[in-house]
Specification:
The protein is built from ten helices and nine strands. It is an alpha+beta fold. It folds into three domains: about 10-125, Orthogonal Bundle (Butyryl-Coa Dehydrogenase, subunit A, domain 1); about 130-230, Butyryl-CoA Dehydrogenase, subunit A, domain 2; about 235-380, Butyryl-CoA Dehydrogenase, subunit A, domain 3 (Up-down Bundle), CATH 1.20.140. Strand 4 and strand 5 (about 185-190) form a beta hairpin. GO terms for molecular function: fatty-acyl-CoA binding; flavin adenine dinucleotide binding; glutaryl-CoA dehydrogenase activity.
Length: about 375
């Protein structure tokens, strides 16, 4: 019998269409040839590789699942595969594309006026305008309903006050999609970076997502024209629907990180000799590697099924929560264990495991902590809200 692909034991690739495989392979080449040579240095220096944005845009990866306005109009599985390959490079790369696509372009596409769509989406798809998403607040975390940022009408404008925390792309962004409490309910606003009273500051001294921009946003009597208000939604369903889009991509991304760690561990244990035999001939090592492959396979099957449900218009937020919980937990456990299999070498940036393990500490926290997603599933099972 032919040998199986150790990174795809159930031949899940055969369940992808020719277009889906082509998209995955093109992003994989970009990651291998352009991104990976930079990522260890970027992580070490604490900088996002902005020089990659033009090629990311040229590949059609920004707003890839949206229709029209210069967007590629790909299906959900293709978007998932994009996230998988980008995070195989680094969580910071996938976070950049995820925020731009799911948290900034999506709400303009879903809730914006035609004028807003025409003004912003083509330039965002081309990487000429970068966005960030302002929902999380310093005191709020997992409780977005406890929002303090507010906007009050003033003639044809709104006066915006408040602060947002842990904002990917914040100081990189040209616009911020900011959610604020109003007398009518929570609404979204497109806040442009040159509006007086708007300030973005980088969060420094991070030990995770170092190759990503993370910021604080401050709004001090920022005057926002009503033309910059997203007219198509009022209430938390607006930002929560954006989070569902982003969380879907996150179910795929950590699979890429886990695959990168497993491949590295397979290569290392095959080459490393200890007690006159390769590490890979050791039973304890094989059991650990086999468990990694099992968990990656289960995550691959879960995300593929989730993608097919999404493309059929049948996906449920609880299913996204279960996949996010399962797949990020899978990846962080594998990254940590692969770091251990590498011994002392595993603590250096010459290898990818420590970088992925540290990044995944953020991924398991943002877009809903592991506990939040467990409680979402628990609520579905029991009918009781334990938040």
């Amino acid at each position: 019998m032919a040998s199986l692909d150790p990174l795809d034991l159930f031949d899940i690739q055969s369940q992808l269409s020719e277009e889906e495989q082509m998209i995955r392979d093109s992003v994989a080449r970009f990651v291998d040839e352009k991104a990976l040579p930079l990522m260890a240095e970027c992580f070490d220096q604490g900088r996002f590789p902005k020089e990659l944005i033009p090629e990311i845009a040229d590949l059609g990866l920004l707003g890839s699942s949206l229709e029209g306005y210069g967007c590629a109009g790909l299906n959900g599985v293709s978007y998932g595969l994009i996230c998988q390959e980008l995070e195989r490079g680094d969580s910071g790369l996938r976070s950049f594309v995820s925020v731009q696509s799911s948290l900034c372009m999506y709400p303009i596409h879903a809730f914006g006026s035609e004028e807003q769509k025409q003004r912003w989406l083509p330039d965002m798809a081309a990487g000429q305008v970068i966005g960030c998403f302002g929902l999380t607040e310093p005191h709020g975390g997992s409780d977005p309903a406890n929002m303090k940022t507010h906007a009050k009408r003033d003639g044809d404008d709104w006066i915006l006050n408040g602060a947002k925390m842990w904002i990917t792309n914040g100081t990189l962004a040209d616009i911020a999609i900011v959610w604020a409490r109003t007398e009518e309910g929570i609404q979204g606003f497109i806040v442009e970076k040159d509006f007086p009273g708007f300030e973005a500051r980088d969060i420094r001294s991070k030990m995770s997502l170092r190759a990503s921009v993370t910021s604080e946003l401050y709004f001090d009597n920022v005057r926002v024209p009503d033309a910059n208000r997203l007219p198509g939604v009022v209430g938390l369903k607006g930002p929560l629907s954006c989070l569902s889009q982003a969380r879907y991509g996150i179910t795929w991304g950590p699979i890429g990180a886990a695959i990168a760690c497993l491949k590295e561990a397979l290569d290392y244990t095959a080459d490393r000799e200890l007690f006159k035999r390769p590490l890979s001939s050791n039973q304890a090592v094989q059991i650990r590697l086999a468990d990694h492959a099992r968990r990656i396979t289960l995550a691959q099957l879960m995300s593929l099924r989730l993608g097919r449900l999404k493309d059929a218009g049948k996906v449920h937020p609880t299913q996204i929560s279960m996949a996010k919980w399962n797949n990020v937990r899978m990846a962080i456990d594998i990254a940590r264990d692969c770091r251990d299999l590498l011994g002392g070498s595993g603590i250096t940036l010459e290898y990818v495991a420590i970088r992925h393990a540290l990044n995944l500490e953020s991924v398991i926290t943002y877009e809903g902590t592991e506990t939040v997603h467990q409680l979402v599933v628990g609520r579905e099972l029991t009918g009781h809200n334990a938040f």
